[in-house]
Structure formats: structure tokens, C-alpha cells
Specification:
single chain; 643 residues; Rossmann fold; 6-stranded mixed β-sheet; 18 strands; globular
Length: 643
């Protein structure tokens, strides 16, 4: 069943057509990936569906009572509000209802024993039921769970939004949107500024989301795991593929090959017909036949049966690497390397080697030391202990995510030729065309380029220098999917060594053959294989941890409740076992107190004292957060004891 239907929609800006005759159904409960080149109209389509803009012509029909939630790429907040304030705005109606219950309980207390009391008690019961159906007093817990899942720690809650980074603002906007429980989510690049852990959390959330979602994303791994339909926006219209991204890409490749084959077959047939017409049209015995064939061709053209030449599937960025020499066998060596900043330990006892021809990915949450490791490799900072060495005899191509090496006043062609000034302009222009800089584009100033265009300039410079080793810090940031796929194809063919810091799991799957994982500050793990191999390991560990927790819970008592003595293996510390029992006792106590609160809330006669009611609400919210913390600590203690 369609939740939103667009029929023959046309939209233009300043005479420039963006959408032309677009017809599309967005069905209830579907998870959809919306893809297309930058500037193809994806965000415009979102704004139309969200009701923020109107089409020039055509119709957009939305189901009555459909709640649409829209996440733009650049969220806008009240500058003086704190992070917690802007997220809590979602619950404004819910909190007003909570305040109304407190006020109503005060009025009940004032008219106790009067004929008006029963009517107010009935109203209180009705509002309380509505309050409970909206989540009751647990909304703070949900709010903090989503903030934590998206990587926003408690120390940011009281910070004014104007002091947050761009990435933190985007995550705050995403938190607020997920809390709205919309029937249809419109997510414009939701994984921008998310690390792998936060992206995995978002995937799980979206997979369990009961409503529908349309996702604009360059994160192909997310599209594979979440969506069941791909909508491609191209040439102002959409094509629907009822599958995930990987299957879509293969289906499109096959469709393009078929289109090229059909075009070539028709072109050959047309050439034969035209050659025949030209050859016999002036002969008396065949002129009539020639005119008949010409009319047939004219009718084919007027009826739209002449096939347009398909766009080449390889029209995207083309990269070629040609290192001068292979270099030595050893590329990178880290021996018991450690690095701290003040009391913050980022890297501890890191021992790691990378040899010639290896392609290694570095992954981990934001702030664990990935870029710090690169800075130590380039001697920008020194390790506190141990050794970090990038072998000096090698030629290095380095891609920095900040694009610091580009001068804003240079043109594109000047930025590339500066690494090889002996190359003539004509050759440089031909080379830059491989990176989608054609015509006068090569004379654009670096300062006027988009993030994606700057990325392509830096990649062009890397190719130009013919390095033996590539060190890439988030190379796919700002690149659209075709550019990412071209880069992947080139890196798979690159004969030298590659060290890649990346959050792009699909990219890592296709390029890396080994991973250096920094799961948290001060820890590391070496994994043979790509991201999918590591994801399978994580899934197995998580399942083992859940199974072990279930076994421990089941052993707690015959009824499976926490609180009684749990049999412990002799090899486990008695102190850790005692700690688990202490936490279990605290959890049972907290759960019992929560039940008492809930019983008090349900009994309107006990809520007649307004001050007491307000105090009970505050205590309930505080106790709910305390219980969540106790459960988290219990699970960590169980993990440590089981290990």
C-alpha cells in the first residue's frame, strides 16, 4: 500500500529542470535506498515529499495522518539551546501532558471530598493512560540510549549547540528524528559524521523500525543491510530496483550491457536500411520500395522507437597507478609503541608490521588514535615509548582528509602540474579528464571547489607522483558512489602497499586484505581479512556473550531470577562473583522501588498532593536511569567474570 504517491511531478529552479514527469510510489513500511549523482535531485525529492516545497506541476498524495520525519544534511538549531534541550523538544507535548497531570493532581487535592472530585479523577485516569501509552516516564531513558548509540556522551548534554561541531549537530538532529517515531523517515546522508560503531547501531535501529524509511546514502554496506528496494534518480526520472545495493549494481550493469547491445544492433540495421535506400532510390523499379522503407524509418523516429546512444558504464573516474620501483620488503614497523596526551592514553604497546604489497585498513571509533598513528608515521609527533617507523627509502602518496596540501588560490590544473611541472598543459588536461575535470573545469580555483571535487584533485596528484606506498586517511569522504567504485577498482590493481583509515565498510571489503582494529583507546587487534570477516567475528563474540549471560542468569535461581547465590567456577575470582551478587541485589531493589512508583502513579488518590506528585515524578526518572546504569555495570561484571 502506497504511503506517498507522486504522479507526473515536474520541478525546476530558475528554468533548470530537476525532476521531469516523475511518477513514484513510496509504500508503507518499506526501507528504500535513493541513489543518484550529486545534483540529480535527491534532496529536492525529499523536500517535496516532506511538504517543504511544492511541484511546478503534477501531484503528490500522502496518506492521511502519515507522520513524515525529515533529516536534512545541514540541520538548523536555536543557537542558545543546549544539546539536551534540542533533543528534548521532541517530547514537548509529552512533557506538557506530564505537567498537566501534576496540575490536575493539585486540583484534585484542593477539591477532595467535593462532588467535582470524581469527574477530575476520571480525567486524571484518562490523561494518565494517554501519558503511559506515549512512553510514560521512560522517555529520558530512550533519549539517552539513542544519544549514546550515536556517539554523543553525557559530557556534551549541557553544551550549547553553537559550540558543537558540525558532526555533533548532525548526530543531534538524527537523535531527535529517531525519537519522533515517524511513519516515514527521510534520511539525507545519515551516516555522515558517524563512526563504524554508531553506523552499526543505526543499522540495527532502522532494521527494527516499524515504519518506512527512504535513505540517501553513499554507504553501500548500510544499503545492503537495511533496504529492500533501490530507487535510482537519473535524467530527471526514477528507475526502481526491488533489491539491495549490490544486486542493484549488478542488475544495472547487465541492463547497460543490454542497452548497448540493442543500440548497436539497431544502429547496424539502420545503417543497412539507409545504405539500401540511398542505393536504390533513383531506380525506377525500386524507387517505390525505397520510399516505403524511408517512411517506415520516419515513423519509427516520430513514434520514439529510435534508441538513444546509452551512456557508457565506464564514464566515471578512471585511475591508473604505475609505481617506478617495488622498494624494500618492509614498509611499516611499530614496536611496543605508546602515545598519550595528558592522562588520555590513545595507543599502548602497539606492535604491528606491514610489508610490501599489503593492503591494510585501520578502523575504530572516533578519538581512539587512528590519525595520531598516521602523524607518528610521518614524524609529526613522536611516540612516548617504543618505535613507529615508516621506512624512509620509499616514495609515499599521502591523502589527508583535511585537504591541507591544496592551496586555495591555485587552479585545478596548477595544483596537479605542481607535482610534475615538466608535463605540458595539453597532457595534464587530458589526464584530468580521467578525474571528471573537463573543459574550463581545469581552471576552477581550489577554493571554489566542493569537497568531492577537492578529493578528486588530491587523488589526481597521488596518481601523478607514482608512489610506492599509499597512505589514505578517509579517502571516500565527499566522493559519490561512482567515484568510490572507480577508486576501489584502481586500488585493487595497485601493486604497491596501501594503509587506509576508513569508516566505509564496503570500501574496506573490496580493498583491504588485513585490518588493524583500534576498538577503544589503548587497545588494538590484528585481523586477517576484510571488514566482513571482522563483522562475522564480532557477531560470533556478541552471540557468545549473550549466551553466557543467559547461562549465568539461568543459574542464578531455579526460576531464573536474579538475586540468589550463583554457582561459580573455582577458577573465577570470588571477589568478582561477590560483585555480581551485590549488583544483582541492587537491581532487584531498584526494580521493586520502580514497581512501587508505578503503583502510586496508577492510584489517583495517592496523587492528590501536587508537590509530592512532582517529587515522585522526578524520583522515578532518576531511578529509571540508575537502574539502566546498574544493568550496564552488571553485564560488564558478568563479561569480566566469564572471561
Amino acid at each position: 500500500m502506497a504511503a506517498v504517491t507522486l504522479h507526473d511531478v515536474v520541478k525546476s529552479y530558475d528554468g533548470q529542470i530537476v525532476l521531469d514527469g516523475l511518477t513514484l510510489d513510496l509504500n508503507k513500511g518499506e526501507k528504500v535506498g535513493l541513489i543518484g549523482a550529486n545534483g540529480s535531485g535527491k534532496t529536492t525529492l525529499f523536500r517535496l515529499v516532506a511538504g517543504l516545497e511544492r511541484p511546478d506541476s503534477g501531484t503528490i498524495t500522502t496518506n492521511r495522518d502519515l507522520r513524515v520525519g525529515y533529516l536534512p544534511q545541514a540541520p538548523d538549531f536555536a543557537v542558545d539551546a543546549t544539546l539536551l534541550d534540542v533533543v528534548r523538544e521532541v517530547f514537548a507535548d509529552h512533557r506538557r501532558l506530564e505537567a498537566e497531570l501534576v496540575e490536575l493532581s493539585q486540583r484534585i487535592a484542593e477539591i477532595h471530598g467535593t462532588p467535582q472530585e470524581p469527574a477530575l479523577l476520571r480525567k486524571y485516569d484518562r490523561l494518565h493512560a494517554e501519558f503511559e501509552s506515549g512512553g510514560g516516564y521512560g522517555y529520558e531513558v530512550r533519549l539517552r540510549e539513542i544519544l549514546g548509540g550515536l556517539g554523543l556522551p553525557p559530557e556534551l548534554y549541557g553544551r550549547p549547540v553553537r559550540m558543537l561541531s558540525g558532526g555533533e549537530k548532525c548526530r543531534a538532529a538524527l537523535t531527535r528524528l529517531l525519537l519522533t517515531e515517524s511513519d516515514l523517515l527521510l534520511l539525507d546522508e545519515p551516516t555522515n559524521h558517524l563512526d563504524i560503531d554508531a553506523t552499526r547501531w543505526l543499522e540495527k535501529y532502522l532494521a527494527g523500525h516499524q515504519g518506512g524509511a527512504v535513505i540517501i546514502s553513499h554507504d553501500r554496506y548500510l544499503l545492503d543491510r537495511v533496504v529492500t528496494k533501490i530507487i535510482e534518480l537519473e535524467n530527471h526520472r526514477t528507475t526502481v530496483y526491488p533489491t539491495n545495493y549490490t544486486n542493484y549494481a549488478e542488475a544495472k550493469r547487465v541492463r547497460q550491457l543490454q542497452a548497448v547491445r540493442e543500440y548497436e544492433q539497431q544502429s547496424t540495421w539502420l545503417a543497412h536500411q539507409r545504405e539500401y535506400i540511398d542505393r536504390v532510390r533513383y531506380r525506377k523499379d525500386t524507387a517505390k520500395q525505397a520510399r516505403g522503407r524511408q517512411k517506415y524509418l520516419d515513423r519509427m523516429e516520430s513514434d520514439g522507437h529510435m534508441l538513444d546512444k546509452p551512456k557508457s558504464a565506464g564514464a566515471g573516474m578512471t585511475l591508473r597507478f604505475d609505481p617506478h620501483r617495488a622498494g624494500g620488503n618492509m614498509v611499516i614497523r611499530c614496536e611496543a609503541a605508546s602515545k598519550s596526551f595528558g592522562d588520555t592514553v590513545l595507543i599502548k604497546d602497539l606492535t604491528f608490521e606491514m610489508t610490501r604489497g599489503e593492503k591494510v585498513g585501520i578502523i575504530g571509533p572516533n578519538g581512539v588514535g587512528k590519525t595520531t598513528l598516521l602523524r607518528m608515521l610521518f614524524k609529526e609527533i613522536e611516540p612516548d615509548e617504543g618505535e613507529v617507523r615508516l621506512f624512509e627509502t620509499l616514495t609515499i602518496g599521502y591523502y589527508a582528509q583535511e585537504h591541507r596540501e591544496l592551496a586555495h588560490d591555485q587552479s585545478v590544473i596548477e595544483a596537479v602540474r605542481s607535482s610534475r611541472p615538466d608535463v605540458k598543459e595539453a597532457e595534464a588536461r587530458t589526464f584530468l579528464a580521467l578525474f571528471l575535470f573537463c573543459g574550463d573545469d581545469v581552471f576552477k580555483r581550489i577554493g571554489d571547489l566542493s569537497g568531492g571535487e577537492r578529493s578528486r584533485v588530491i587523488l589526481a596528484r597521488l596518481v601523478w607522483t607514482n608512489p610506492q606506498v599509499l597512505i589514505l586517511d578517509e579517502p571516500t569522504n565527499h566522493l559519490d558512489i561512482p567515484a568510490r567504485e572507480a577508486l576501489e577498482a584502481a586500488l585493487r590493481l595497485f601493486p604497491g602497499s596501501i594503509l587506509i583509515v576508513s569508516h566505509d565498510r564496503y570500501f574496506l571489503d573490496r580493498v583491504a586484505d588485513r585490518l588493524l582494529v583500534l576498538p577503544e583507546r589503548g587497545r588494538y587487534e590484528l585481523v586477517e581479512g576484510n571488514w566482513s570477516a571482522y563483522a562475522a567475528m564480532l557477531a560470533e563474540r556478541e552471540q557468545s556473550a549473550r549466551d553466557e549471560q543467559a547461562r549465568i542468569r539461568a543459574r542464578a535461581t531455579p526460576s531464573g531470577r536474579r538475586g540468589s547465590s550463583t554457582p561459580k567456577k573455582k577458577s573465577r575470582s570470588k571477589y568478582s562473583a561477590q560483585r555480581i551478587q551485590e549488583l544483582e541485589t541492587q537491581i532487584i531493589s531498584a526494580e521493586a522501588r520502580l514497581q512501587e512508583f508505578e503503583a502510586a502513579f496508577a492510584d489517583s488518590s495517592s496523587m492528590k498532593d501536587a508537590n509530592k506528585a512532582q517529587s515522585l515524578h522526578a524520583e522515578y526518572n532518576e531511578l529509571t536511569l540508575e537502574l539502566k546504569d546498574l544493568n550496564d555495570r552488571w553485564e560488564r561484571a558478568v563479561d569480566a567474570h566469564a572471561g
